[in-house]
């Protein structure tokens, strides 16, 4: 094999693409939604409408490019820059002027036109527990321009990660990738990490509820570590193929192992907050290696987050095996033959654990084939086996040392990959911000928006009306009497339901009626307050399974 070619994992996880909710990617029309706020007769009204039309077109162009990985990274970057530079104007007070510098603080500070924008985005990675996945639905996050900006940035970051996987993965054939392809994929992963870091630092704060679907801080932190690990995994494989010193390979592999393991832990905090979060992966590696491959609880997670979690755990095990093997080779080339044998034995055990985790990862939806990771797995197994045999031979013929029971300390991690910083674009200089003075924010609908909404038809909370409370006050005595009567009937029906099975069906119907009568006062109060009668249902069985299972991120 040529020195500039490395064997990659052809199953590099192409993250699912995040899309806006609607029949097509550009369903949001800023001109239609914000035109009612324009003051009639204002001299800037024509320019304002033209700006809203341009903004809508920029959004459609960007989201169309993000629907597949066919577009070029440069085209996506240009579309993102154009859209962000325009929508940035919606984040300022209508009478304000755009600041000269790029650091203007949170763009949604104060009253702004963007607060009147209504958008909806599909949550891809994170889904609520207990959702019926057979329906094929996904949670929908609804909000204003703050949610729009954050969701667009996350969508671009996930697109870059998916594009990198498609570029370097060989189309699932397990082919090698040369230096140019690897460099392009590595750069895309680094850019994705920079965008996600920018989201965590700037845009997530102030979105509303702590858990906001894909914009949950734990989900973003997990994705950030995931893309960094993917980028640095190329460095490890290239160092192995070029024959770099074992100490360097072990140190970089240790960092990749930690990144994958911490990505798993972050996703676990979002998907199964009741589950035990493991200690730092550099502590007690032997205990982690002996953990059950099926006792960590990924199968109890919901949605696509489960697939990403299974992948990060599998890759953590693979690079832990690389770390142990090359740490063993480094010790063997020194004077610690016994410790080298112990590390090589542990690396072989970890390879077997990685094999089990790979099969579990393949079984998670959406299913993947073992053939897609065959080349990567075979390369890992061959190299670990080769190092194991070499360490055994060197110790038996040269070092003649006893193999210790305790696993030697792991190497210090060495990180050679960092995120590419992302800067929010400056305001579009072609837009005169004075045109926003024609927007009358007092006309904006008073809607309570929930960025972590469940995707229902009602985008806001219902408010109570005075006439409802008046009816409740007038009818409450009658309802209370009916409730007491229902309690008496309930007591009478109880023996019939228990001891007279032939009358069970009829008794059950009467039972349901009386139960409704008993709860009638509460139903009436909820109706008057504008609250729903049915609370949100949660799958407590899934929550319980996530809380009792334990294990490690890598094994």
Describe the structure.
This protein has 14 helices and 4 strands. Helix 2 runs antiparallel to helix 3. Among the domains are: 14-128 and 138-231 and 430-447, Serine Threonine Protein Phosphatase 5, Tetratricopeptide repeat (Alpha Horseshoe); 466-545. It is 54% helix and 3% strand. The protein is mainly α and 555 residues long. A two-stranded antiparallel sheet has the order 1-4. Strands 2-3 form a two-stranded antiparallel ribbon. The radius of gyration is 29 Å and the shape is flat.
Radius of gyration: 29 Å
Mean pLDDT: 77
> Going across the major beta sheet, what is the strand order?
1-4
Low-confidence stretches: 100-110, 129-137, 279-295, 446-464, 535-555
Query: In percent terms, what proportion of residues is strand?
Result: under 5%
Question: How many angstroms separate the termini?
Answer: 31 Å
Write out the CATH superfamily name of the domain at 14-128 and 138-231 and 430-447.
Answer: alix/aip1 like domains
Keywords: Membrane, Transmembrane, Transmembrane helix
Family: Belongs to the BROX family.
Pfam families: BRO1 (PF03097)
Protein name: BRO1 domain-containing protein
Index terms:
555 residues; mainly alpha; two-stranded antiparallel sheet; two-stranded antiparallel ribbon; disordered C terminus
